[in-house]
Amino acid sequence: MSLQSSMKKFIGSSIQTEISQTFPLEQTASAISHYQTQMTAGKVLLYPSIS
Questions:
Q1: Res 25 pLDDT > 80
Q2: What is the three-state SS of 6-46?
Q3: Does the structure show a pLDDT above 70 at 22?
Q4: Count of CA atoms in the C-beta half-sphere (13 A) of 24
Q5: How far apart are CA 23 and CA 3, in angstroms?
Q6: Exposure class string for 23-48: b at 16+ Cβ within 10 A, else e
Q7: pLDDT at 1
Q8: pTM for the complete prediction?
Q9: Do 20 and 44 touch, CB atoms closer than 8 A?
Q10: Nearest to 42, CA basis, from 10, 20, 22, 11
Q11: DSSP 47
Q12: Is 51 strand, coil or helix?
């Protein structure tokens, strides 16, 4: 078993994080502004647009 597989099995779902909001990559500036004002609300995810 690889180290990565061992760690995934050990950690399982015990580590979780809150996602505050998601933004398309084109709205990176808005995502950063949101994060700066809501740092403790959770993570901000950027995703690529699918054209």
A1: yes
A2: HHHHHHCCCCCCCEEEEEEHHHHHHHHHHHHHCHHHCEEEE
A3: yes
A4: 4
A5: 33
A6: beeeeeeebeebbeeeeeeeebeeee
A7: 58
A8: 0.62
A9: yes
A10: 20
A11: E
A12: coil
pLDDT higher than 80, residue 11: no
Distance CA 25, CA 48 (A): 5
Structure token pair of residue 35? 């994060």
Given a cut of 70, whether residue 51 has pLDDT beyond it is: no
Cβ atoms of 6 and 29 closer than 8 Å: no
pLDDT averaged over every residue in the chain: 84
CA dihedral over 41, 43, 24, 31, signed as positive or negative:
positive
Average of pLDDT values for 1-22? 76
Tell me the two tokens of residue 48. Answer: 């690529």
